[in-house]
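Listing 4. Sequential folding, example run.
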Amino acid sequence: MFVIPYGPEFSNRGPGKTPLAGILGLEVFERFAVTIDYARHTLRLQTPQSYVPAAGDVVVPLLFQDDMPLAYASADGARGLFGVDTGNSGRPFLFGDFVRHHGSLQRYDAGAASQSFGTGGSVSSTSHRLRDLEFGGLVMHNFVTDFVVQQKGSFSSRTEAGNIGHDVLSQFTLTTDYRRGRMYLHREPGAPLPVYTRTGFAGASRDKQGRIVFGSAVPGSPVAEAGLVKGDVILTLDGIPSQSITPAQLFALSRREVGTTLRLTVQHEGEQREVTLIRRELLCNAGAQPCGAWISAAR
């Protein structure tokens, strides 16, 4: 086992929820057929000999780079090997060499600068709505995807196309069978589609009192149009003191339904003002209808 000094931002799962204790890895997955059922919040372990896939499951061959399982997927028609990362709790990534080779950045607007963190360290990227990601018999349209721009670190592979995590994998009930080098995918038609921030908060910190300090915004978003600048202190959100709002709650507040409002009390250089944000979809591709995520069957 490794002991990794993650901070509370990683382990905190929200009010009343047990903090994250650790990560299950290769030593568990290589000894079982492991079924992750996102819809029913269960993890099922079976001996590989006793596991029988359900009728209609899509069989995906797995390859391995060290302890990372890899599978083929296509991004905007370009095929490559993607890490199947059940530890990635959010968006898919396209790695820098793949992005540069296929001219991905040239086909999209500037996007939003993004910084994410994990076991491999920090990852600098820009966020875009990828038009098509084909995987496991489905095409995910307009799923927000991070294009990695750094050339060092765990997400700078020159042989892999990218990394797919929760946003994609949760569209299935998936079973990995490492011994046979296979993954079985069972489509879950009722799975919720991923939602990107609808207010535009892209970065924040805390001051000594625990209040939220504004960091950065998605360009052209409601919070950017409201004129918040780096260093502004957010005193309340919908009347709730910001020091009592966890990262998970802030995440949820920014992703509520399109057209609903979020009221902020903001302090700028000692002066307070009230700001009302109206949530809407962001990072829309020109001419894309709808702007948000949707799924179709692959040909």
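-- end of first protein; second protein begins --
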Amino acid sequence: MKEIPVTIGICAYNEEENIENSVKSVYRQNYEGVSVSEVIVISSGSTDRTDEIVRGMLAEYPNLRFIPQERREGKNSAINLLLDSKRTEIVVLLNADNTLYDENTLSNLIRPFSDDKVGIVGGHPVPTNTKDTVAGFASNMLWALHHRVSLLHPKIGELVAFRDIGTRLPVKSQSDEDILRMNLERKGYQSVYAPDAVIRNRGPENVRDFIKQRTRVNIGERYMKREFDYDIPTWDRDLLFSAVLDSVKDLGFHPIKMSLTVAMEMYSRMKATSYVRSDKGDMGVWNPVSSTKKL
């Protein structure tokens, strides 16, 4: 298969515990059908050892590039800087607190781009949280639903690859993947879900953080609907109902934890809807959820 050149971008803010593992997971790939031209780490105003750790890796990996931002201006600002600095048409976005699951993740993510009609591809996030706690189960159920919805209607998030068609992101918005996807689809490109491109992430470890994170995400999605009249697949009730039924196959039947997860998500969506109706503004720069930073 012809090798597809890609740039891998990793956006980071105070990720000293995760950044090395995230970068190294890229270099453990088998690269079948992929040529990694460069790996670019954007560190946005980090105040911990993130910058020091990345600089210490530059000699080991010749195609690793480091671009620090003096001030933290939000992920969209970091992505814009990445897009203005990269050398390839295809760009992969990897969060600094995530790792590629196995050596085939990148190849599985990039393979669909052999079709010129494909504009953006989403990976399959799988949390490292235990299912024993309410918050841990909720994180697992959330991503199981994401997976099941994406099999029917791709929901792009956490790990994405896309063609750069000149889109630059509004820095006062927190939506990144959804804006990229929307612009590509409106130009006639297709969105694809790659279930074998597995990414490991960490969900919130307590109920408070779960609601905080989900409220923030839902605020961004509601602003997408208001500002661009763009529908997010996970707000489709029919898709969600089907996904909830199918998630039992993935998680087993746990009626109490499932009911609590649904209740927390509904509460988060109600808070987000109220926030947007009050026009308080999107969260371009948000407070990190600390319990998600221990992959």
